[in-house]
Amino acid sequence: MASQAGRLVADVTAAGGEFLSLDLASNNPFRMLRSAAALNRIARERKCDVIHALGRSAAWSAYLAARLRGIPFLTSWYKGFRDQNIFKHLYNGVMARGDRVVAVSEQIAQLISDRYGTPWERIAVVPSSIDFERFDPAEVARERVEAMRHAWGIKRDIKVILIVGRIVRRKGHHVVVKAAKRLKEMGFKDFLCVFVGEDRGRTHYTGELWDLVLATGTMDVIRMAAPVADMPAAYAAAAVVVSAAVQPEGLQRSILEAQAMARPVIVSDLGAGPDVVLTPPAVPESRITGLRFHAGDDAALAATLLRLFSLPEPTCRAMGARGRDWVLGHFNAPAVAEQTLRLYDEITGPEIAAALAPRLRQN
């Protein structure tokens, strides 16, 4: 694994992987070329059979290195990148140049096909997986949950609406704030929206969000918490976990984790597809694991929250239990690893390699 060093390096090495520190995050063309040369050298020295890129700037370097080495190139789409102008479209396009393009959900696979005309036979849907031992409601002691609520300053009878993810516009925090205002206007009480996520200070969005909170008079029902170490306890403390994403998010790990913790979820139609959260009309009410609303529609989000909170407690618990069963069966690590390794076998097999050879030489 080649990347800038971060908090997951220990996990890579503990799993038996080799970590190589390399600046692949820069979109400076000269740095990209240097990174491509470094990846080419690494691939030659370690006799790599394939190069798999997980981000756009890294993908440009990886693409060049793979073509120099004459080996297959894969990419993974974890979300729907913004495509607001021709330059972004071209920059993002490297993610569609893979000899195989991995999408983490059917929603993202459709987006790739629609935007770039990528043939479906080159697209493979391989979801993410999560640690089910860590995210197990049976393993989270009541003391941990009470400690989390105490840290947030929340009384026992307050319903926590948890929103997990970086404080960036595409996550739709502003939609949640407007929905909270509507809930207050409708007389709904005893709730608190808790935003848990990093603010990297790269945009003015956090400041705009605070301005919106002040303008809507929702200071009493909005809490911006610091990043949380004990996320299982955070989910356990929530009545519902919400994703109000306003652009395609692919497969949000927080939504999988919330379902693994048997929490009901509410997602926008861009926050998760029907292969991630089971909602009507795709499945009958007896099978749902959450509810869905139209992205960007704060009135619809408020109505959906009211609908959930009006359900009997046993119904909400059953919804959460179905969510856990769903992710246990479809997003477990062994199954995802098997799909990934099978994909590597397919693309490095002799028949596929022979078919790719003319294309690799041409590029």
Describe the overall structure:
This protein has 363 residues and is α/β, with parallel strands linked by helices. It folds into 2 domains: 2-129 and 332-362, Rossmann fold (3-Layer(aba) Sandwich); 137-327, Glycogen Phosphorylase B (Rossmann fold), CATH 3.40.50.2000. Helices cover 45% and strands 13% of the residues. The chain has helices at residues 9-14, 29-45, 56-69, 86-92, 106-116, 142-152, 173-185, 205-216, 231-236, 253-260, 298-310, 313-330, 333-348, 350-362; strands spanning 2-3, 20-21, 51-53, 73-77, 100-103, 123-125, 159-164, 191-196, 222-225, 240-243, 265-268, 290-293. The strands form 3 sheets. The chain has a 6-stranded parallel beta sheet with strand order 9-8-7-10-11-12, sandwiched between helices. Strands 3-4-5-6 form a 4-stranded parallel beta sheet, covered by helices on one side. Strand 7, helix 7 (173-185) and strand 8 (191-196) form a beta-alpha-beta unit. Helix 10 (253-260) packs across helix 12 (313-330). The protein is globular, with a radius of gyration of 22 Å. The two termini are 24 Å apart. 40% of the residues are buried.
